[in-house]
Amino acid sequence: MPHLIRVTFGVSKSLKGLQTTAIENVRGNTVGQRKVKADLILRNLKRKYNTKSNDVSQNKLKRTADASGYDDIILAKRPKLDQAIQKGLKQKAIEVTSGVIITREESVSRQASEKGFEKQNDRGPSDDLGLDQGVESDAEVQVQAHQEITAKILFTRPSMVNVKPAGITATAFSIHEDLLTVHIPFLAQAILPSSQPSNSMRQLNLPSWINYMDFTILVSWLHTGTLPMIDIDSPSSRFIHCHLANLWMLGHSLSIPAFQNTVMDSLRKLCAENQTGGFNYAWPSFLQAEEIYQRTAVGAKIRAFAAAALSFKRPVDKMGEDSEASRRCFNVWKRTPELFVDLCQASLRPECPWHDEARKMWTVKEDLSLKYKWEELAKGRKLTRAKVKGWNGETLRELTMIL
Q: Chain centroid to CA 93: how far?
């Protein structure tokens, strides 16, 4: 069964409700990711035929479908989503006049072939920040791959683990054992054997050094491959940098390179969007950089990025020779001489550290792909067939489940 992608133009509330219901019954990536993909398709239509979104003719849509691989587009004068969904189970694409609903088989390779679309044809606000939209498309491909594996895992044997954080009042998490195995083998090895009957949930006690809120975000990433949205206009946005740095260090401690790279991309984007130019509000400060150096080992990517970001702001130029700020800076260098060395080296590099040209410098290498880890884990397991039913009771698809 193909995934469902939606573009909406002034659709009534009732139709939106039907669309949402249909989306929830089709396994795929998140609604937010589908909207991003749908916007990409819409811009392709508008650019190719220079027409408004709600004024696309049937012939133009058909030609676009043929050229883009979206086949069997159907136009209806009156949107009837329930009928469209039923037909969509047999067809690759459906379009209704008040909105475009496109269903098709998604694949990582297909998305990869489209990743250069924005870079070649559009220049948006990201260009001024040094953020390459092609790189953003690469990130979308990685998120898609992450969510496809997550969906496969969640449809396997219902082997859940009760993950209990340190502290009496902390709420425990129920996480699929295979999610922990493919993403965080360090924790998966610490799962305690069950002393109860075989159908009871096994338990994992988190070490006390894992922050509860940080782990909550990690659990969200395990299922979605993305981080929660960040409001850069919030008064507390200056502290979000520090939180992201803490998340990166959590991923480092648990050996999760993919999580570290997701956090680093968010940190780079936040640095680009939150340029204030003032030393007092720039991340990192000398004390924040010192804390990162104290909590990480030599060679950590977050060290190099923090030093490069600090050096690029040229904070020393804003200090007086005998000011209190310069004395604090000198004390930090005395306590953390390796930070001083990295600052000197970073000052010799002309590129902006958060621009995408420098992205590879801060990327943590992943030894094995997520797909390979999952395939290795699934080897030798029993296969069975299961039916997934929609909101109207009709069978949407049959799935192969791994037990």
A: 27
Last residue of some domain: 106, 140, 156?
106
- Tell me the backbone φ, ψ of residue 160, rounded to 5 degrees: -100, 150
Smallest Cα–Cα separation from 223: which of 259, 249, 199? 259
In this predicted structure, the answer to whether residue 31 has a pLDDT above a threshold of 80 is no
Mean pLDDT throughout 386-400? Answer: 65
Q: How many helices (H) and strands (E) does the chain have?
A: 18, 8
pLDDT band per the 50, 70, 90 thresholds, residue 256: very high
At which of 59, 90, 106 does a domain end?
106
Q: Specify which residues 94 forms β-bridges with.
A: 101
Q: Report residue 161's pLDDT band, with 50, 70 and 90 as the boundaries.
A: very high
Distance in angstroms (rounded) separating the CA atoms of residues 228 and 221 = 8
What would the two tokens of residue 305 be? Answer: 């990025």
- Residue 104 contacts residue 93 (beta carbons within 8 Å): yes
Tell me the C-alpha distance between 358 and 344, whole Å. Answer: 17
Residues 6 or more apart whose Cβ sits within 8 Å of residue 155: 27, 386, 399, 401, 402
pLDDT mean over 131-153:
78
Structural domain total, the chain? 2
What is the helix (H) or strand (E) element at residue 109, kind and residue range? helix 108-114
CA 154 to chain centre: 18
Q: What is the pLDDT of residue 141?
A: 86
Model confidence, pTM: 0.61
